Amino acid sequence: MKKFFTTIKNIFSIEDLRIRILNTIGFLMIFRLGSFIVLPGVDPDALGSGATGGIFDLLNTFLGGSFSRASIFALGIMPYISASIVIQLLTVAVPYFQKLQKEGESGRKRLTQITRFLTIAITAAQGGSYLAVTIPAEAIMYSAAFFQVASMVILVAGTMFCMWLGERITDKGIGNGISMLIMIGIISRFPGSIVSEMMTRGMSGALMFVLEIVALFFVVMATVMLTQAARRIPIQYAKQVIGNKLYGGKRDYIPLKVNASGVMPIIFAQALMFIPSMIAGLWQDSDIGAYIGSTFADPYSWQYNLVFGLLILVFTFFYTAITVNPNDIADNLKRNGGFIPGIKPGKQTSEFIDQILTKITLPGSIFLAIVAILPAFAVQAGVSGNFAQFFGGTSLIIMVGVILDTLQQIESYLLMRHYEGMMKSGKVKGRSQIAAA
User: Fold this and answer.
1) How does pLDDT run across 277-313, given as a tens digit for each residue?
2) Which residue ranges run through the membrane (predicted)?
């Protein structure tokens, strides 16, 4: 405990780190405050009759409750994430975007500008659906046409403001701003979910509640292991004589992560899981449409989770293939005088890395799919839906990843100022550290 308080003291004794932490807290407070400001012209007491359950509850968890409150941040940062995913896929498939990606800082600025314009378009499209589906007519207190136009403008402005907050956190705060906004929305629902679960169990179910907390602890530890696990490939650098000095000859390693794609396969799969509901809406008068709608509107049904898990397996291999390029790694090694012991530089190195990547991606994708569908098993075991969402899925992986990244950044500040790190042995390893390596 003494070491913990000493670490906290060291953190706040570094002026730059202290200012960044306070900035982050301030920006997050602004974000949470905005999530409680209801759209003008909406009666909050009449919102209960809007669309709820299933997918809507899941979205509400990601957005920290602002979705159900019809707030000015009702769509949050999600349209920006959707736009970023689209642009990232385009950089793989479209030559124009590939060229921009290789142009350095100017290309990056151009991609950022395109992403922002696409965010506005996606927010406008999603905003229209949100107003039509989630806000009942009786909750609107003035002209429906004027309300639609005004609310669309406010929702677009709210999303762009959230995007701006995320960028400010990244620049002036600590951690990745966009990820922070998602995490704070998820965590804001966590205390209420625990209290609700505890009240539901009561004194008679106290033992079951304790078992649920223990199970949650082990699930979190398993998710940390999945996030941190990496296969190290040893590298040897050739020795070079420059003048009278000998350079190189050191040994290093390439850390290939077991889950190199992070949470992206779950996000991709979840985006596609909205398609069955759209199909059901087109065939709503038929028995097939009614069956599809009722089955895939429930994120805890076995049909939903079977398709969801298979999509995660496919997208894990797909996203790993577009983010980790063995040919680029082999070329960089050859260019810098590095080689894998026993493997020839060039094509054989690329094939060796590709084989290793394939072998570790399969168990990683299976484990990721299991973590993603764990909330369904928790519901089947008697855990309430709100609390079950923290037993796995996107929520848990995002929280673990963001917290590890933030702790790693804080630890790097401590070590740069010659303070002891946050752990007695080893280091806090976030995704950014492994990516940099």
Assistant:
1) 666 666 666 666 667 767 777 777 888 888 888 988 9
2) 21-39, 72-94, 114-133, 139-165, 177-194, 206-226, 260-283, 303-325, 360-381, 387-407
Give the CB-side neighbour count of residue 107, counting CA atoms within 13 A: 11
Q: How many CB atoms lie within 10 A of CB 277?
A: 15
Query: What mean pLDDT comes out for the span 396-418?
Result: 80
pLDDT in tens, 329-376: 888 888 877 888 888 888 888 888 888 988 898 888 898 888 888 888
pTM for the model: 0.75
Give the domains, in start order, of the chain with CATH numbers.
1-188 (1.10.3370.10), 190-437 (1.10.3370.10)
